[in-house]
Amino acid sequence: MTDRERVKGEREPLRDPATGAALPQREQPGYYPGFSTLSQKKYWDATTRKVVEERVAGHRLGQKSIRFFTHAEAATMLAVVDRIMPQEDRTEERRIPILPGIDERLYENRLEGFRFEDMPPDQEAYRLAARAFEQMAQTLHGISFHEISIREQERILRSVHDAKPLAAIELWKQMNVERFWALLVSDVVAVYYAHPWAWDEVGFGGPAYPRGYMRLEEGEPEPWEVREQRYEWVAPADSISDVEEPNGTDKEHQTYPGQGGTH
Amino acid sequence: MSLFEYNAPLLGDVGKPGKPEDDVHRLGSMQQIKVAPPRFKDSDLIDYAIVGVGSAGGVLLQRLARAGFKVVGFEAGPFWDTERDWVSDEAGSHKLYWNDLRITGGEHPVALGANNSGKGVGGGSVHWASFVPRFHPSDFEVYTRDGVGADWPISYEEIEPYYELLEQEMPVAGPARYPWGKPHGHPYAPHPMGGVGDTLIKGCTKLGIPVSAGGPVAILSASHGDRPHCIYRGFCIQGCKVGAKASTLVTHVPDALKNGAEIRDNCMVARVSMGKDGRTDGVVYFDAEGKEHFQRARAVIVCGYAIETPRLLLNSACPGHERGLANSSGTLGKYLMVQAGNVILGRFEELIRMYKAPPAHALTEEFYETDPKHDFARGFAVQTVGPLPIAFAKQMMASKGVWGWGMRRAMMEYNRWSALGLLGEILPWEDNRIELADGREGRHDARDRFGLPVAQVTFSLKDNDKKMIEFGKNKVMEIMWAAGAVEVVQEARYAHLVGACRMSKTPDAGVCDKFGRTWDVPNLFVMDGSVMPTQGSANPGLTIQALAARTADYLISQNDAIFTSSLRDMTEPPCRKSLAPPGTFRHGIPHLR
């Protein structure tokens, strides 16, 4: 059974709270239906347009471009990133591939400019984690991480989020678990929210040079942006990731991998 | 077909059509400069080798070239053509940062790279948000006033003329009257408000806290020479393609090149070389192909910022300087500082769209000074920040612990969030430091691709710092609630990097004197954020450039004595306005006499 069949087989279908009808998958989730940053690309400078178009085209290559992870690691990590950034509410052709972006960063050794002294280099951290996730699934369920149910995967991930891994303790002891979790989630969101479809989802205007903005206050849209249209966006009812809870790292003044500049 | 003929944008392609010539660099949407062929050979004896062409190095290069010195700037990163190399895109801007490995630790480790370190001509000024408040007079005598930190070897009055000068050279947009520190005005009008600035103003006004709207920021609110005004696209920290935001790349480097300075980009200086007479005789560097060179120079100025400067001096250890160059005091690499940079995020019922307008556009310094009612010395500022989606997603992870469907849900509210930054003064502590990685964990990454040991950074907060952060964070949260937020969360983090080669009144207390001249080597200077003994709650960029301009005046006044004499003349130089880039003096700076 593939992951996707499991999704369909095991979870409550998405339902519209108003009508109770099953929700169709959307081409564009989020509260800005009809908004398309890519539709504005004629207004972007040529260099930016090339970078964004290559990103969209490159992502279509999907798993073919995996060079850093081994076949087995890729199978595990694909299942992991599918839970960190689930996309079952998107139609299949509008899902944003994430693992290739992480794989490329690790293969090309594109660093964030530092590593924590209690962490191995990023590449070692990912290989160690791929082993640990797989071992957790084997210990707890006797089969591979990518074969267990989504709910089981989420339970394993949540224990790592909480810095209390349910199994593979010896492997997890080899690095700071909170820091690895932050590295993983940072890498995943850095790929997903770099994609124009994700910009459309959250209502971000995308590249804005040389045109710029003229409507700066009160959340006013530019004439080419769209107004927000609220509806109740529901995640699968059985998911344990649709929660907000601080992870282990929130206790003290802590630093995350890949923090960008602010002020 | 060249990149620039490809499907021309509807608003017109910016810059020159066709393939850009290698020697022409477009700096912003209007300015172009022609780069002359290399002027000097390694075997030529140049006057000044400047290591790092960033905030300080860019200003020094310009001043010294204009004064007629033979000067070469060595820059580890590329010489940007902003039309060709920069993008209006968060993920695509990664190359602006110093991404080479550093190892960070201590009890409260500091994030490096994108958070605080630039690479390429212009350095960190390429990706700063460009808030440019001055330091307050009290910042120069923290030890005298509060018995903590250190005093500077200079006073506010000594740097003030250079604040005024650089505010015009950048130039700075800000309010008509800036009430904190020594009150002053600004040469360019303040910027219009965005949603985040409105949050700060609303919250502060509700609580009766004075607030500054529209600056001070080094972003043009009206065009200046061949630099156009801001277009409010919000990508300041991804590099300003417009050319409206000041960086030394667009403000000082063009004038430096016109006056005969040479920049060797993609050249990494490996060590400062010492001659037999106790003076430096040049620098050893690796070029873009990794080939090692030695450039002879009569004096060297290290402008590599608070990690690379001490790293270079430590890596330059040699007989007679076994602990590193200019380290007879033992303070090299010590007293490293970062500011508390907690980001307080507030969700509102109404839309904000915080990606519009410069992230830096309003602030308050009402809590800057020591307040006897508090249980800590010194204080903090509160400033606007405007994270784009990737940065915001990481903040959601850090502040709310979200992942999976929770992350997707949180991010769909992106346009309803506003973000304010705490900028708090962490005091200088000896054991917050830069050292060379020694590979003690048995890892292969303790050396870079040139075989040079990488920097090991150690950072921990002390009691005063923790109390300041706790109070400051809660104050910013209070402002956010008062602005009408329905949910308020926060991410702990740091901003900026200064110290680690501090200037001092006496040779036993620091690395260099008040002009950046190292105490141990008379023709070796340090000039960048690393010379700061304390940091205040002001973003350091303006002060770094002001100090660099002042040191340039000193070097020019001393003239050949720098190259030939070991006498240390501490006479304050005259402030030479004549050395400013052309077009600087169209506007004045109102100030209190």
Uncertain residue ranges of chain A? 1-11
Largest interface: A-B, 90 and 118 residues
Global structural class of chain B: alpha/beta
- What sequence of helices (H) and strands (E) makes up the elements of chain A? HHHHEHHHHH
CATH second-level architecture of the largest domain in chain B: 3-Layer(bba) Sandwich
User: How many H/I helical runs of chain A?
Assistant: 9
- State Rg of chain B: 23 Å
CATH class call of the largest domain in chain B = Alpha Beta
Query: First CA to last CA of chain A: what distance?
Result: 49 Å
Strand content of chain A: under 5%
Q: Helix count of chain B, per DSSP?
A: 13
Characterize the overall form of chain A: globular
Q: What average pLDDT do the residues of chain A reach?
A: 88
Number of domains of chain B: 3
Main β-sheet description of chain A: none
Largest sheet of chain B: 7 strands, mixed
Beta-strand residue percentage of chain B: 15-25%
Look at the helices and sheets of chain A and give the structural class: mainly alpha
Query: What distance lies between the first and last C-alpha atoms of chain B, to the nearest angstrom?
Result: 60 Å
Helix fraction of chain A, binned, reads 25-40%
Structural description of this entry:
The complex is a heterodimer of chains A (263) and B (593). Chain A is an all-alpha fold. Chain A has one domain. In chain A, α3 crosses α5 (122-141) and α3 packs across α6 (150-161). Helices cover 40% and strands 1% of the residues of chain A. Chain B has helices spanning 55-66, 82-85, 142-146, 156-169, 195-207, 248-251, 253-258, 305-315, 389-400, 404-411, 463-482, 541-558, 561-564, and strands at 24-27, 31-34, 46-51, 71-74, 103-105, 212-213, 262-264, 268-274, 280-286, 292-302, 337-340, 343-347, 362-364, 380-385, 417-424, 433-436, 455-458, 487-491, 494-498, 524-526. In chain B, strands 3, 4, 7, 8, 9, 10 and 20 form a 7-stranded mixed sheet that branches. A 6-stranded antiparallel sheet of chain B has the order 6-13-14-15-12-18, sandwiched between helices. In chain B, α1 runs parallel beside α12 (541-558), α4 (156-169) crosses α12 (541-558) and α5 (195-207) packs across α11. Chain B is globular. At the A-B interface, α2, β1, α6, α8 and α9 of A face α2, β5, β14, α9 and α10 of B.
